[in-house]
Design goal:
The complex is a heterodimer of chains A (182) and B (366).
Chain A: H1 3-22, E1 32-36, E2 41-43, E3 49-54, E4 64-68, E5 81-83, E6 86-90, E7 98-107, E8 113-122, E9 141-142, H2 155-177
Parallel strand pairs in A: 2-8
Antiparallel strand pairs in A: 1-3, 1-9, 3-6, 4-7, 5-6, 7-8
Chain B: H1 13-24, H2 26-51, E1 59-60, E2 63-64, H3 69-99, E3 102-103, E4 106-107, H4 109-141, H5 157-160, H6 164-182, H7 187-205, H8 214-240, H9 245-278, H10 283-286, H11 288-319, H12 323-353
Antiparallel strand pairs in B: 1-2, 3-4
Helix pairs in contact in B: 2-12, 3-4, 3-7, 3-8, 3-12, 4-6, 6-7, 7-8, 8-9, 8-12, 9-11, 11-12
The chains are: A alpha+beta (182), B mainly alpha (366).
Chain lengths: 182, 366
């Protein structure tokens, strides 16, 4: 290995090491932080809107919320309103008791759409099913977050196979191509 | 592409004859090779997009939570890949034009061919950029491409689509570069346009994950610039100078020095960016993003090994114009490198769309 090669590799390692030592991981993306109704909660009175709060303010464009009732009807009313990190989705009068699914899509400030869902269960009939009238939403409650981009169990084997096959392939191919030159 | 025999002595007349015959039948082999490169790139791109979880659409009772649909998903991916390949090509062709020797007071034939290709590729860059604008817009606002209010781009673009300005200026600059290269016949012209082209890489590099931090922003911008010079430069020599021993004798040693510096810079900036987004070593095999990063690092290791063969065996002999055998070895090694590089670019496209591990996607505990 020539002197120049060693110098460049050494420089890269030192530079990389310094930055790795100094830098903290970057700030997080937008994620759902709190909601009302609470995710997984059972409530008696139908809320007039769904509130979502994110860790960072999402873009005001591209947000969509769908609220699907147990009767397969959609109960969102009009587009969601975003103010800072807070999203408000007005609702139509809710219908029969059962599980309501809230699916949302917001765009993080780096332009990547994020999707997520939460659920709540209405224990008594809503206004549209002859129940009591809508109420103001309850205060926010924190959500438990989970990450969904975990790799499958075979991923480390894929990495190992790629490294072994490509590296040994490059060694063999290089030797074959340069045979007779040395 | 490896077709050299292993049993015959290296410099035997039989082998030299076979190589000469192969070169005489050069054209179909070039097309077969180009097709192999394209297939490798597309296959890796589709694998990367699938592995990163980007081909899945979220639906509620058959209704998309977004509404942008498959056309946007595939269009986004294809236009980003096209943009990356075209921009790397433009920069490589311009760099190649500067690396190749000047003969008799003007540009030599290979350098002139580089400029001509650069002009067409810059046009493709502009078109891919415009397509990417439309698909990204569709993705952000969750509307099909066909229903986007295109007229608003010319009235209140930032309100309609926050990144519109970056895409529009980048598209316009790509077209300016195309026109500038088309009227350039000199080395100085290439020297003026090259920084413009490098500058035009940054708007795209600073989209997406780069919004996460300043260190990340700088390392990604440098990464993209350096990769373009390295990958594009090699591709330019391979495409336009492979049949010209005299031109290669001058350009290859120059490129080899450039490539070594680029390799170190690509590795360093790639490592920094990966650390910024992963922040924990174990995430490199437990998250989808991390696995794609490792696959890209594998490509870099492979390129390092191929480059080592170049430095050890071929560069010196190509410089000395040491017969067709050395040149043939250089061309084959370089061709293998370009395939790996295109596959790495495809992985980069998939990575740019894949949620990094610091993205917490919510799904409640059921």
């Amino acid at each position: 290995m020539s002197y120049a090669v060693r110098r460049v590799i050494f420089g890269a390692v030192v530079a990389g090491g310094l930055v790795l030592a100094a830098a903290a991981p970057a700030a997080a993306h937008t994620a759902l932080e709190a909601s009302s109704p609470k995710d997984g909660s059972r409530i008696g009175a139908a809320p007039s809107e769904v509130l979502l709060r994110f860790t960072e303010a999402p873009l005001t464009t591209g947000a969509h919320v769908i609220v699907a009732g147990p009767d397969a009807h959609f109960y969102q009313s009009g587009p969601p309103q975003i103010s800072g990190a807070r999203l408000t989705q007005p609702l139509k009068p809710l219908g029969p008791p059962g599980t309501y699914r809230v699916e949302f899509r917001v765009v993080a400030d780096d332009g990547h759409p994020d999707v997520g869902e939460m659920r709540f269960t209405l224990t008594k009939p809503g206004p549209a099913a002859g129940g009591a009238s809508q109420v103001r939403p309850a205060p926010f409650s924190q959500v438990s977050a989970d990450t969904v981009n975990d790799a499958p169990a075979w991923a480390p084997w894929l990495e190992l196979a790629a490294v072994v096959i490509l590296a040994s392939g490059a060694v063999l191919f290089g030797r074959r191509m340069t045979r007779g030159l040395s | 592409m490896a077709s050299a025999s292993t049993d015959s002595p290296a410099r035997s007349p039989a082998r030299l004859k076979r190589i000469t015959v192969a070169r005489a039948a050069g054209r179909p082999r070039v097309w077969a090779y180009a097709a192999a490169t394209a297939i490798a790139g597309v296959a890796v791109l589709i694998f990367g997009m699938w592995f990163g979880g980007n081909l899945v659409q979220r639906q509620v009772d058959g209704l998309l939570v977004g509404g942008q649909g498959n056309v946007t998903t595939w269009g986004l991916m294809a236009s980003k890949f096209g943009l990356d390949v075209a921009s790397v090509g433009v920069i490589g062709m311009l760099a190649g034009c500067l690396l190749l020797p000047v003969t008799g007071g003007g540009l030599g034939d290979p350098a002139r061919r580089c400029l001509r290709t650069a002009g067409w590729l810059a046009l493709a860059w502009g078109v891919a950029n415009a397509a990417l604008l439309m698909f990204s817009w569709s993705d952000v606002v969750a509307q099909p491409v066909t229903t986007l209010p295109v007229a608003r781009l010319f009235t209140d673009a930032p309100a309609a689509f926050p990144s519109a300005r970056a895409y529009l200026s980048s598209t316009a600059l790509a077209l300016v570069i195309s026109a500038a290269v088309a009227i350039t016949r000199t080395r100085r012209g290439a020297l003026i346009v090259l920084p413009l082209a490098l500058y035009n890489l940054t708007p795209m590099a600073l989209q997406g994950h780069a919004a996460h931090g300043t260190v990340l922003k700088f390392s990604l911008a440098i990464h993209v610039i350096v990769v373009s010079l390295w990958v594009g430069g090699l591709a330019a020599l391979l495409i336009h100078a492979r049949g010209e021993p005299a031109a290669l004798a001058v350009a290859v040693p120059r490129f080899s020095t450039l490539a070594l510096a680029c390799y170190a810079a690509v590795a360093a900036t790639g490592l920094i960016a990966a650390w910024e987004l992963l922040g924990q070593v174990s995430l490199a095999w437990t998250t989808r993003y991390g696995v794609l990063v490792i696959l890209k690092a594998t490509a870099l290791i492979t390129l390092g090994i191929l480059g080592w063969w170049h430095r050890r065996h071929t560069v010196r002999r190509v410089r000395a114009a040491d017969g067709p055998l050395a040149r043939s070895a250089f061309i084959r090694l370089a061709a293998a490198e370009v395939i790996v590089m295109v596959a790495a670019i495809a992985l980069a496209v998939a990575l740019s769309r894949t949620a990094s591990p610091d993205t917490i996607l919510l799904h409640s505990g059921r």
